[in-house]
Amino acid sequence: IPRYKRLVDNIFPEDPEDGLVKANMEKLTFYALSAPEKLDRIGAYLSERLSRDVARHRYGYVCIAMEALDQLLMACHCQTINLFVESFLTMVRKLLEADKPNLQILGTNSFVKFANIEEDTPSYHRSYDFFVSRFSEMCHSSYEDPDIRTKIRMAGIRGLQGVVRKTVNDELQANIWDPQHMDKIVPSLLFNLQQEEGIERSPSPETEKEKESPVELTERCFRELLGRAAYGNIKNAVKPVLMHLDNHSLWESKTFAVRCFKIVMYSIQSQHSHLVIQQLLGHLDANSKNSARVRAGIVEVISEAAVIEASGSIGPTVLEVFNTLLKQLRLSVDYELTGSYDSFANMGSKVIKVHEERQLQEAVIKTVGSFAYTLPPYQRSEVMLFIIGKIPVPGMYPALGSANTGVEGSRMIQVMLLKSLLQVTAGFQSTNILTALPTSFLDPLLSFTLMEDAEIRLLVLDILIGIIDRHDNRHKFSPVRIISDISVLKLKVDKCSRQDNLFMKKHSQRLYRHIYLACKEESSVQRHFESLYTLLALICVELANEEVVVDLIRLALALQDLALTEEALPVYTRCAIHALSAVYLNLICQLTTVPTFCQHVHEVRPTVCLSVRSFIDPFICLSKLEKVEGEVLFVQTKIAEILGGSGYNTERLATAYIPQITGLTLSLSFKYTGCPVVCLIFFDTVIQELERERRRQVVERFQTAPFEEIAAHCGARVSPCLASIQQPPPSPSGSVGNGHGPSRSIPVYEMKFPDLCVY
């Protein structure tokens, strides 16, 4: 009998309950270290004995054999360890294939110990496919005894954890991130993560690991797996999560899906977060025709993931994220109005529930806000421009609604996209108002203040308030009330910057015009006038210089005249306009801190108080409004005289405000399904385009036309220049009176040339 066999036989006692013979085990270990070439034979012989003992149900000797193998593995790290490992894995495999739970757990424990060993030499031919499959199967154990079932499942989880640790960093091993492996590992972990309430913990405490529940162990293993995922492996790790939630209809409940992706987002490296978001968005697209509850669940997960992603980056495709979400809004509106997931109603096999579609729409809008919150100001500005370009405006942009939804579809999409835009602007604080409200954004936004739909007008006002309010002052002007001492508001006011002044110089008249015309809308209610007051107050606090204050006073006085003279307006609208004018002048007088101006406003305060009450009762000032005398109104000439003494522009103050039309005013009529819609839109950009075209033609003429043609076209403006050039140069001796001598010499660089002749 060879010596290695005798040494192996000696470690087994006569009675297996006595356990491993430690003295003989030390001899076997010393022999293996002294003669490493014998390791493979020792392993093969131990494997042979273990197989025989398993077949004979001598489980005590099986445990002794596995303990010996474990000790040999821990002690030997020579180059020939690979051959020994093959015998070891063969024995572990036999234990895992056994029907006895104790043997399966024993084999798993040995494999976990082996997985924690860092081998010195690589292995080119070792395979772990069986172990992935078997451990995954153990994770789904349905053993009758709940305690044993829990132990088997926990053994399966630890086994998968061991496989990952052993293979994830070994380039020579089969890639554990391949779909064939991930499709087994991830669902097995998620299955146990779900069992928090269904599995009872063993009442007998043994070790710290035994006290750990399968759910806790699963979460720790899942986090470790995701934490090891590199950039190229994220997709393979996340896709099985999506498929598991699909297969088990877990999107609708949302709770488990949100929990899973919170684990994913917190476990992966932060720079890879946007890859998870992109996969979720792609999955949302793939489920476009699924029920609204499923889509709402996916959107809820995206919203939660976006908040976590704030520490990372949203990735290079920012607009694609918002494009996907806005597309879902459009589809939801189509589904709600048509009642079908397909373009033809007779093809729709699923019943569409309107209230579920509305919940989905609200979830998408919330998610848009969650994403926007993670963006820096410059990217948020890009998103605002992107969304405003998606809003259908009759005659300017193609309607986003399908042909089956008509005008109602366009209106609903307008409302949804404006709500999304409001979410994007929430908390948006830009130091440069010129970049926050560029012409390309402001013009289409202001056009919506003139639409008949009251909800759309209110959303636009809230959006403007959110952008202009850079010091969180908006809530201090609500509710609308007479303020005797403005210091109680504790307003945060900074000096207007150069950018603020440039913005008001460029856009102020357009803002005033739309505010003035918005006040005349008959469908406006109390909320509209409160928002108009807040907007005017913020303009005065955030953007007002001396010139702007003068224009705002003129606007307020024009609103007072509008309330008194526009008898065609409803009673409530006239009362509300009068209230808006009165309360706003009361605010301005305290901001200007001109005592005589404040005194004039104080004299008219009874009318101011009466006007404010009109916000509450639309009929309270009807009788008074028709009999208002001059002494109880704000008088423009008197205000001009008062403020003129404080350095304000008297001439401008005395001029009544009239809305200026700086562009083309077009009244466009459209007809959708027999319902006429009239939309008044101001095209300032048209004038700018015409001016640019005129300049281009002038430049082209001077570049290509003959000189004679240019001279003839310019006429008298060119002749003096030519005459001055053709005259002989005057004498440098100076000038002689009475025209009898040469005039004073003028250097060429001091000669005045017409602009057209200077390049």
TrEMBL record:
Gene Ontology CC entries for this record: plasma membrane
InterPro entries recorded: ARM-like, ARM-type_fold, EFR3-like_ARM, EFR3_Homologs
Pfam short name (any one): EFR3_ARM
Classification via Gene3D superfamilies: Leucine-rich Repeat Variant
Example GO biological process: protein localization to plasma membrane
PANTHER family: PROTEIN EFR3 HOMOLOG B, PROTEIN EFR3 HOMOLOG CMP44E
Family from the record: Belongs to the EFR3 family.
Protein name: EFR3 homolog Ba (S. cerevisiae)
Originating organism: Cyprinus carpio
